[in-house]
TrEMBL record:
<dbReference type="InterPro" id="IPR039428">
    <property type="entry name" value="NUOK/Mnh_C1-like"/>
</dbReference>
<keyword id="KW-1003">Cell membrane</keyword>
<keyword id="KW-0812">Transmembrane</keyword>
<keyword id="KW-1133">Transmembrane helix</keyword>
<dbReference type="Pfam" id="PF00420">
    <property type="entry name" value="Oxidored_q2"/>
</dbReference>
<comment type="similarity">
    <text>Belongs to the CPA3 antiporters (TC 2.A.63) subunit C family.</text>
</comment>
<feature type="transmembrane region" description="Helical">
    <location>
        <begin position="12"/>
        <end position="28"/>
    </location>
</feature>
<keyword id="KW-0472">Membrane</keyword>
<protein>
    <submittedName>
        <fullName>NADH-quinone oxidoreductase</fullName>
    </submittedName>
</protein>
<dbReference type="GO" id="GO:0005886">
    <property type="term" value="C:plasma membrane"/>
</dbReference>
<dbReference type="InterPro" id="IPR050601">
    <property type="entry name" value="CPA3_antiporter_subunitC"/>
</dbReference>
<feature type="transmembrane region" description="Helical">
    <location>
        <begin position="122"/>
        <end position="143"/>
    </location>
</feature>
Amino acid sequence: MLEFVLERGNYWAIIGLMMIGLYTLFAATNLIKKLVGLSIFQTSIILFYISLSRIDGGTAPILYGKDAKGHSGGHDEAAGAHGAASEAAHAASDAAHGAADAAHGAASHGLEHVYSNPLPHVLMLTAIVVGVATLAVGLAIVVRIREAYGTIESDEIRETDLEVARAEYAVDQADEANPA
């Protein structure tokens, strides 16, 4: 049991960061501290996805050396080689090879390298950009709230809103009682 827990230490650290971020987001009354908690939570989610996509012995999905041969898509061939005659020659050549040779080649090629999936990393780069944009918009809103209310404490902002609502209600009641 201890070995199971210790092998997954990165997940425990990520869960700890996630809980710290959530606690800060919900417990803080200062709007800046709430944004810091949101950023910590977003960072923990990004770390979680990156650690999930890790493959033991996996390498970056970059073709190099002998793997790169034949993966150019024909872009390195002469311009005149493309055409019906070239396609017919390729089809005849492919048909000449036996199914056993093709299966053996595919199986041996698949065992040469283990590649990591790049999609989670790309998605997390997008999440980082969205997180930075969210933080920037949140900070801009906090600045506007500070200008309007004179504070960035959420409980003081609620009290001010409640006082304004009570005053507006009293004015509306007075207008209804004394029609002009």
